[in-house]
Amino acid sequence: MNETKMTRLVLDILRDSVFIAVCAVLLITLCCVAQGQTVPVEVKRAIAASLKASNTDGMHEEGGIWGLTTRGNYVVIPAKPGKKADPCMRGIVSLAIGDAADPGLEANLQTILGEWHVHPRGTKKCDRDAQGFWRQPPSKVDLDGAEDDVNIVIGAGDGFVYYYNKNGVTNKIPYKEFIL
Ligand SMILES: [Zn+2]
């Protein structure tokens, strides 16, 4: 191999590396953007309503699912509110996300695309030294149950929207940016 060939080889490798790096950056950007965009505006409105409802006492969850109807339209199906709970009593608060507040909305549901629920913002003084509060990021139970394409927890207390799948949180953005 002479000098010229060697130089060309090095240049080729360099060019390929740059190409791969650019592709990786593009792919990551596309993934993040797509993830933000896969939440339709109808769903964002329902999420805002859930947050408002959970914030009335800060001690219960709200949530729901969305999907496509047989005609290909978005359908948003809020769940019945979760039971009010006490963060000082071993802090379990939950919601049956598939238990529709209005079962009529499920009639034409064909494909479930995503689900959301709010982790409440309430806190309570349990005793002199302990303050009870609700965990804001998705719990182990949330991660284990992440079956949909898009799974979202809204931390009403910390103001973040968490996207997650079975492996963990994949993205975390301020609620104020999410709801724009
Ligand atoms: Zn949860």
> Could you spell the SSE succession in H and E letters?
HHEEEEEHEEEH
How much strand?
A: 25-35%
CATH fold-level topology of the largest domain: Cytidine Deaminase, domain 2
In DSSP terms (H or I, runs of 4 or more residues), the helix count works out at 4
Output the structural class: alpha+beta
Instruction: Sketch the major β-sheet.
Output: 6 strands, mixed
| Cα-based radius of gyration, to the nearest Å | 22 Å
Please give a structural write-up.
The protein is an alpha+beta fold. The protein has 2 domains: 1-34; 37-178, Cytidine Deaminase, domain 2, CATH 3.40.140. The chain has 4 helices and 8 strands; from the N terminus they run H-H-E-E-E-E-E-H-E-E-E-H. The protein has helices at 3-37, 41-54, 140-144, 175-178; strands at 63-69, 74-78, 109-119, 123-125, 131-133, 150-155, 160-165, 168-174. A hairpin with a 2-residue loop joins strand 7 and strand 8 (168-174). The protein starts with a helix and ends with a helix.
